[in-house]
Design goal:
The protein has 484 residues and is α/β, with parallel strands linked by helices. Helix content is 25%, strand content 20%. The protein is globular, with a radius of gyration of 21 Å.
Length: 484
Amino acid sequence: MKPVFSKRTRTLSYSLHSSENSVSRRALLAGTAVLGMSGKIAYAAPKATPRLPNIIYIIADDLGVYDLGCYGQTKIRTPNIDRMAAQGMQFTQAYGGAPICSPSRCALMTGRHMGHASIRDNFALAGGVLGFKGKEKIRRANLADQEPTVASVLKGQGYETGLVGKWHLDGYDPDAIPTRHGFDEFHGWLTQTEKSQGYFPEKWYDGTTLLDVPGNAGGGRAVYETDIVTDQSCDFIRRHRQKPFFLTVAYNAPHSPYVTPAEGDYAGETWGASEKTYAAMIEFLDAGVGSILRTLAELGLDEDTIVFLSSDHGPRSEPTSEQTEVVTFFNSHGPLRGYKRELYEGGIRVPLIARWPGHIAAGVKDETPVYHPDFLPTAARLAGKSLSIATDGRDLTQVLLGRSPLPERLLYWETYEPAFWQAARQGQWKIVRPVGSSRLELYDLATDPGEKRDVAAQYPDVVSRLSAQMAAAHKPSREYPIAL
């Protein structure tokens, strides 16, 4: 279902004008994804010479590792994502760049961990730009002018680049938008524009032009954000199928508030209303992934396209009783300790799946500890680019292709809610400096993935080594001027 833009009227003309149509389309996508991926090609062009691979990164928001069937979820059905995992590589120890939205996406786009990143939380301690979140006045950081991103690196290699959905790296700076950071196309919403946000947005960006979404003005619920992102992503793929492209598909689901046009396949369950809605949100998300994979198959682009799927951090948007009840009901963080905004495993562990038929072996589960800063150097290598910029990530192509393991290294995080704290992992060891404390905790993730037993007293040499590395990883910035 292709969206049509009218610049003259500044309106997003859309084919889905009711919740009922949206649910029907979701059911259709879920039902036809298998057919589309079975090898039937609608209009594939003959391949003359090998080309650089298309790269698609699908990122969900607040999706727990254990919300997906392929990671053990039993109540929510995710057949398309599960099939994607079965056809590719599933990482079992993947991490976001941070335990909250903006900094984690900053790490993904720039390849810098939280000790070096320009955005390290959803707010800034100093600097940044002042703006309003509702009625609250806050200061936000943003990507700096000319700061390199995955998109700018790949654009330099001749890729067509696009982002659909959530950016969240603009803060309140009108210039810190995707089209100023390497994206040829941007269709989505910005932090600085409230009417472009939500699951039934009134406005939607086409580049720098803000368009009306018909039927959503004044509280209307005609067009669902998950469907907009899916349809515009598929449209981007169709329009750019002749050249290598990089596409970021940034869904808002299943971030709070819990909203869907309908409860779909879960309407008849005896669960609470929030649980049924949360499950339906993930069902819409899964159907969208199925539609994207089906589009690739129809265009004959399966073997030319590597698709990644992940989340930005752990589950539970806010520490409310309703949201805690939902993630507990679905066991969204499994045996892991903590939630979003925390540096324990439950706050930073994410699903990560990579699918590239003919290149990545099917059905592989890999235990390599990896995280968001790895994406930029990996994408650059896939595009044949030698990086001349500093990153904190590692190129994962040899792991993806099954050729060699990744050498052990330090993974680093810091966050600022409710106060500054840090964590780092190297091999089996995870060190945590808790909120506002000088005390250090140590966990052996090989035997204690739930971080229940602090073994710092038993391994002082490990604590000393990791604490020194963790301190060296943090560099104060104008927006985050904490000195250790």
